[in-house]
Amino acid sequence: MVIFGGTGDLTSRKLMPALYDLARQRLLPPAFAVVGVGRGELTDAEYRSQLREAVGQHSRSRPIDQEVWASFAERLYYVSVRADDGYADLRRRLEHFDGELGTEGDRLFYLATPPTAYVPIVRSIGRHELRGPRGWSRVVVEKPFGRDLASATALSRTLHEVFAEDEIFRIDHYLGKETVQNILVFRFANSIFEPVWNRRYVDHVQISVAEPIGVEERTEYYDTAGAMRDVVQNHLLQLLALVAMEPPVAFDANAVRDEKVKVLRSIRPIRPKELAERAARGQYGPGFIEGEAVVGYHDAPEVAPESRTETFVALKLFVDNWRWEGTPFYLRHGKRLPKRATEIAIQFRAVPHHLFSEDAREGMEPNTLVVRIQPEEGISLKFGAKVPVQGVRIRSVAMDFVYGASFLVDAPDAYETLILDALRGDATLFTRQDEVEEQWRLVDPVLEAWRRSADPVPLYAAGTWGPQEADIFMARDGRRWRQP
Amino acid sequence: MTVDEVATVARAAVVNIVVVATREVHALRAAATVSELAMRHPSRAIVVLMDRRPDPDAAPAIELHAQLPSVDRYEQVHYEQILVRARGDCADRLTSVIVPLLVPDLPIFVWWTGSPAIGQRHFDDVVAFADRLLVDSADFARPEATLPELAGRCMIGRRRCALTDLNWARLTGWRELLTQFFDVPTWRAMLPHVDGVRVSFSVDADGREIHPSQALLLIGWLGARLGWSPAERIAPSEAGGLLFSMRRSDGAPVRVRVRPRFERGMAEGDVTGIRVEGERDGRRSEFRVHAMSGDGRPRYATLSVRQDGTLAAERIVPLPPTDVVRLLGEELTILASDRVYEEALALLLALS
């Protein structure tokens, strides 16, 4: 496994801890080596001790087991690549492993660099024939995959110069989360939910990804990307696809992805004249998060004073197909919201006829099925129950399933799942080119309309649930955003 | 056990209870009440203690102390209590601490001890996320002015936060007893002819602590139910009492007298008795409920009916206890706003 960006943040916070945890669970193949590629000059020993510290901080199984680490670190190498001769060095190392360690030409390239480096790295892989003479080669590409439809297509074209589509693993780490995979199990391994999973019974769907953190550490990237490109284009649309898709013909990579693409293709594009009714954006101002005063987006030193980058996006989408015609899907994502919460809420229709008096029903809300992705992963179903008093008084109660309380095993981290799948060649949880392109096709016109618009970006105080525009947008439909 | 192993528990919480207090003694008493209720209403309780005394040496600070998850004495219900201690001027950031601690999808009850900080930012912020605001108007200096104002503050946009007054909940027993008289058809016929009401409420021995709000609520309720309208404003009478009149739907006046009384074993402000009288076809009737204490507590009520001064009926019934635990327990079963209470309040507002 070759990690480009071997000294980067992603490698130390996610990839190495995941690899170490896989090693600890004896899940890595016996013939396996990791080569970190970076610009700096480091010896293998220096690289190992640097990562030892990172893994100690970020692994989900702390403290580190010395024996496991020692044996894992023996297969950990570093190659400095600044110019072409670095690639020659890298190639020699890889060929050496093929004989010495028995990796037999199998190669997994992981692009964990800033996206601007993707194209030169991929071309160098091709030019220096880093693909082994035998065995398989695959490439894992981190998000962002392009910054619009045109650049995403161009990036795919470059990747295809060296890799076939089934060798390209575009990562969306949300798909590696246990609860996200469970959406498919919940829907297609149970018979009672699917019959009501459609426009006849579902009033609307709300998908929220709320984060209390700001963008401090990656302002430079964020200011050019914004919330839409950072989260909505990938994570939120993928969640929508999993919730709305038809049953796939089989649980394999292409069958599942075929169904997701069909959903993405059915989503009605947002036309510029519908912008106000179907999209809202916002940028956080100063406020308070968990009692701490935090600065506004604009007050960060790296942010350009004229920056109109959105840190909040709300969308109203329609999936124009047989199953979902007319049922709105509300998507919402923001930074500096009051709490960390990712959830999918399916709100069912109210009963067709009210049998009980208005007074009796006042504490009641329509049935809602909530899939909590984080924190407190689980599923809860809200239904009305009679309060045990004289007469009828109805109150909504929740039937709760909490992952952590039902299964007393630690869920693997998303990156463990995804790295292992890439090593095994299972692309089910990775996004295919056509998915990525459909996702851009949906967000591009909105981004473009916002870019052209002279209206100021609405502000919201840090620690609130987004700008008023998002509430108005919901209120117009007679609905309310949930408070996850 | 490692931290990870206790991180998730099967939770039985049915409600979020946020207690707001400015005095430590109130906060602790409320915390004890909520935890006593945990068996009937397992909850996530967040007790906010706002110490707003300016302290020049300390910056505004918020501390969290969690008691998680404590297994109650029956070892069946997990009860979670979080103490939020805010020192100095933290009003602007208070909700940013509370909101992330709420369990999603559960109703949010806010119990504001003492007088609510109407018009202050943290009050509006808290009411904005609450489903139900619980206050105790027995603690208010001027309940007749504060209560209607509170009701107005509870409308947030198109959403409303239901307002509950523990002092109103204390009257439930009185309302029940009073209406029972009029289940008897001949006595019910008296109702349109009521021309006088007297309510007495408890004060301390030297008559300094005068809290007529409960008595006024009872009168507001009676008037609103019987369709009376205000004839003159509430005016003070001798010895801390109140005297005023209302008008029946036929235009005839109803004299109302509210009197403080010292009674051993009664909590200050609690109603101790009510008398409703009227005249029909030349006969005067008088309906009276009077609390009697036993073991130092109001335990029984005597109900009597007199016609032309002669005792027509008398019985003694137990009064339901009105400790805060029981009252709160009752209130937690209700989510909706109480229209009967609001109508009583509206009449009081017109009188003040």
Main traits of this protein?
heterodimer; A: 484 residues; alpha/beta; Rossmann fold; Dihydrodipicolinate Reductase, domain 2; 16 helices; 20% strand; B: 352 residues; 2 domains; seven-stranded mixed β-sheet; 18 strands; 27% helix
Largest sheet of chain B: 9 strands, mixed
- Helix count of chain A? 16
Proper CATH architecture of the largest domain in chain B: 3-Layer(aba) Sandwich
Broad structural category of chain B? alpha/beta
Proportion of residues in helical segments of chain B = 25-40%
Note the topology.
The complex is a heterodimer of chains A (484) and B (352).
Chain A: E1 2-4, H1 9-24, E2 34-38, H2 44-58, H3 66-73, E3 76-80, H4 84-100, E4 107-111, H5 118-127, E5 137-141, H6 149-162, E6 168-170, H7 178-188, E7 202-210, H8 219-225, H9 227-244, H10 253-266, H11 275-278, E8 279-285, E9 287-289, E10 292-294, E11 312-318, E12 328-334, E13 341-348, H12 358-361, E14 368-374, E15 378-386, E16 394-402, H13 403-406, H14 414-424, H15 433-452, E17 459-461, H16 468-475
Parallel strand pairs in A: 1-2, 1-4, 2-3, 4-5, 5-6, 7-12, 8-17
Antiparallel strand pairs in A: 7-13, 8-11, 9-10, 11-12, 13-14, 14-15, 15-16
Helix pairs in contact in A: 1-2, 1-14, 5-6, 6-15, 9-10, 9-15, 10-15
Chain B: H1 3-6, E1 15-21, H2 24-36, E2 43-51, E3 61-71, E4 78-87, H3 94-98, E5 108-112, H4 121-129, E6 132-135, H5 143-153, E7 155-156, E8 159-160, E9 162-165, H6 166-169, H7 172-181, H8 185-188, E10 194-203, H9 213-226, E11 229-230, E12 235-236, E13 242-247, E14 253-262, E15 271-280, E16 283-294, E17 297-307, E18 310-318, H10 324-331, H11 339-351
Parallel strand pairs in B: 1-2, 1-5, 2-4, 5-6, 6-9, 10-14
Antiparallel strand pairs in B: 3-4, 7-8, 10-15, 11-13, 12-13, 13-14, 15-16, 16-17, 17-18
Helix pairs in contact in B: 5-11, 9-11
